[in-house]
Design a protein that fits this description.
Elements: H1 5-17, H2 20-27, H3 31-42, E1 50-53, E2 56-59, H4 61-87, E3 93-100, H5 107-117, E4 121-128, H6 130-138, E5 144-147, E6 156-171, E7 190-194, H7 199-210, E8 216-221, H8 224-232, E9 238-241, H9 246-251, E10 254-256, E11 264-273, H10 280-300, H11 308-314
Parallel strand pairs: 3-4, 3-5, 7-8
Antiparallel strand pairs: 1-2, 5-11, 6-9, 6-10, 6-11
Helix pairs in contact: 1-2, 1-3, 1-4, 2-3, 5-10
Length: 315
């Protein structure tokens, strides 16, 4: 056999997407070029790797076995590259981070300079819900997680990154003329919630419970983006992190409703399992965060509190 690494990569992408067209788009190749690579790879086997039924591409049972082998080969090639870079004194390896959905507005800024300076490091970043984030941490399948509510069920160590501010928000169709409202305003506003277990939901429910506020629960949605779009559409109001709605505030799609006692404040934490044995990329990233976090916050989030005057009114 005389297949190339490129053919393995193309074959895996085709099987992943179950489409030559979609694989070509992902690989930034033309469809004919991908088809040629698949044919050259197939020619080395007497048993079909794929088949087309109707207009849909399927991977044969034999092809599925080749997929597993191809993944192992490419993984070993990566390991060879990491070892070569390490022998040359260059930082190399994989950095694995899981992030709660709202954290996607934060983590890229703490990663960008590090990844630019660490060309030998591959990043695996999973943006998901809090339950999945905690599970990945518990299974020790990631180096770090980014959360706004610390998991009680795990022993973790942490670095506090930055403050998380949550406000009551609505679209801009309804006018709120008072300078500041008290929390009785909630009885008239249908609230949109995040799903159970969400850090935003935990903080929101804690505030409602501590202040004994009667609320009208309108609906429950599974992401910050879904809540944001529902609020913009006028389906209700919500308590949302400022970090995820700054653009909508600037463009006038959303407004903050001034309520006494707001913003509700929590913190963003980078966490890891206690006694975690770090890889070299993980050690380097943690040192980068500790050394650079103040500069990153000042440079990237200097207008984070775009509501200074409002905060004075509410305090």
């Amino acid at each position: 056999m005389n297949y190339t690494l490129h053919q393995l990569q193309v074959f895996l992408k085709i099987t992943e997407k179950e489409s030559i067209t979609k694989a070509a788009e992902e690989l930034f190749l033309t469809q004919p070029a991908v088809s040629i690579q698949l044919r050259k790879f197939q020619d080395q086997f007497e048993i079909p790797l794929t088949e087309v039924v109707g207009r849909k591409l399927y991977v044969t049972d034999f092809g599925k076995g080749i997929v597993i082998a191809a993944k192992k080969i490419l993984e070993e090639v990566k390991n060879m590259n990491y070892k070569t870079r390490a022998y040359q004194g260059k930082l190399s390896g994989i950095l694995k981070i899981s992030v709660v959905s709202t954290g996607k507005y934060i983590i890229p800024y703490f990663l960008s300079d590090f990844m630019e300076q660490s060309q030998g490091v591959d990043l695996r970043l999973d943006v998901t819900n809090k339950t999945q984030v905690v599970q990945s941490l518990e299974k020790n399948s990631v180096d770090f997680s980014l959360v706004s509510v610390l998991p009680k069920e795990l022993q973790v160590e942490k670095v506090q990154l930055m403050e998380n501010q949550l406000y009551l928000v609505g679209n801009t169709l309804k006018k709120f003329e008072q300078k500041v409202y008290d929390n009785t305003i909630f009885k008239d506003l249908p609230l949109i919630y995040r799903e159970q277990g969400s850090g935003t939901r935990v903080t929101m429910e804690k505030y409602i419970k501590n202040n004994n506020i009667p609320v009208k629960k309108m609906m429950e949605l599974t992401s910050n983006e879904a809540v944001k779009q529902a609020v913009i559409a006028g389906l209700g109001f919500s308590i949302m992190p400022l970090i995820g709605i700054r653009n909508e505030l600037r463009t006038g799609c959303l407004q903050i409703i001034p309520v006494k006692g707001f913003p509700i404040k929590s913190n963003w934490y980078l966490i890891w399992l206690k006694n975690k044995k770090f890889s070299l990329p993980a050690v380097a990233f943690l040192n980068h965060v500790k050394d650079q976090k103040e500069a990153i916050i000042k440079d990237k989030f200097e207008n984070y509190d775009v509501l200074t005057n409002l905060n004075r009114c509410l305090s």
